[in-house]
Design a protein that fits this description.
There is one protein chain. The chain is mainly alpha-helical. The chain contains 14 helices and two strands. It has a two-stranded antiparallel sheet.
Length: 310
């Protein structure tokens, strides 16, 4: 009886599967293969995000249980002058760094796409900085910015008869100096993506435009840039998130005074790190994390809306 019941159950399941349409079977297989990544993403991403929102309403120093204090962390954040200085620094990285990096990377990709001699080598050469670890790259650039006779940049300035510059020791020059490093670090990735977008544009459009008598500038403005819109949207969002989350360059290039001098280069991510792991004020750090998450979400949604509606 047991074997017969087992055989009947197997037959019923087989019959139920055979009664499904091809589309339903395909949907079941798709969700079967996606189940593990979805569960992993929910556990790794969603749960910590929800936990961070909860911790932002508590007072927790890792030694005692978290104590619910309501919105006190957000009130403290609003009244903290250091937060507003860091907020301005973070948006300076975003507003200045993103357009400069995109314009430079597009210009390099546009002309590099026309190079035929040693094209693969040149492309790999531009992509190499993106593969370099951020810490090593930051320390090399820190060496470049050192005062004479150590710093290479000041050495070139001295050779040209120009005065040495303080760079990372200046409250006015430190942030642009770090921004140059961050732009250079991400340039290779953006160049490769722009080149892929340029290669995806059918050559028939360019041939038809040249037959109609359009010049190179008109072709760039009326054909290349409009057809590169999906690529540009991706890189704008990707680059903006990168500059809003900048940390490695700042932390390693100003390791004697992280975020200095006088907090003029400190981004929000570095402030979160110091609040959590130097002051051990996890609730306050969680509130800062929620603010950063909200900024990232709003900026990304605005950019997607603007770039897709124009």
């Amino acid at each position: 009886m047991t074997l017969a019941a087992s055989a009947n159950g197997t037959a019923e399941r087989s019959g139920a599967w055979n009664r499904l349409s091809i589309g339903q079977k395909r949907l079941i297989w798709v969700w079967t293969f996606l189940a593990l990544p979805v569960v992993f993403y929910v556990v790794i991403r969603f749960y910590p995000t929800v936990q961070a929102f909860w911790l932002s309403f508590t007072n927790w120093d890792l030694l005692r249980p978290a104590q619910f204090i309501g919105v006190e962390n957000y009130v403290k954040l609003y009244n903290d002058p250091l937060f507003w200085q860091v907020f301005r620094n973070t948006f300076a990285y975003l507003i200045i760094g993103t357009p400069i990096s995109l314009v430079v990377s597009f210009a390099v990709a546009y002309y590099l796409d026309r190079v035929r001699f040693m094209h693969s080598f040149m492309r790999a050469l531009y992509f190499l900085p993106f593969l370099t670890t951020a810490a090593a790259m930051a320390w090399v650039w820190r060496w470049f910015y050192q005062p004479p006779p150590i710093g290479i940049i000041n050495g070139f300035l001295g050779t040209a008869g120009l005065p040495a510059q303080p760079f990372l020791r200046s409250t006015e020059q430190a942030l642009p100096a770090i921004m140059v490093t961050a732009i250079w670090a991400g340039l290779g990735f953006q160049i490769i993506i722009f080149m892929a977008g340029l290669r995806a544009i059918p050559q028939t459009y360019y041939e038809a435009a040249r037959i109609d008598g359009l010049g190179e500038w008109a072709i760039l403005r009326k054909i290349t840039l409009p057809l590169l819109k999906p690529t540009t949207v991706f890189l704008v969002v990707f680059s903006s998130i990168g500059f809003l989350r900048i940390f490695d360059q700042v932390y390693n290039m100003t390791s004697n005074d992280p975020g200095g001098p006088l907090n003029t280069t400190k981004p929000l991510v570095l402030m979160i790190y110091q609040t959590a792991f130097s002051s051990f004020n996890m609730g306050y750090a969680a509130a800062q994390t929620v603010v950063l998450f909200t900024i990232l979400l709003i900026v990304s949604l605005i950019q997607l809306w603007v770039l897709r509606t124009r």
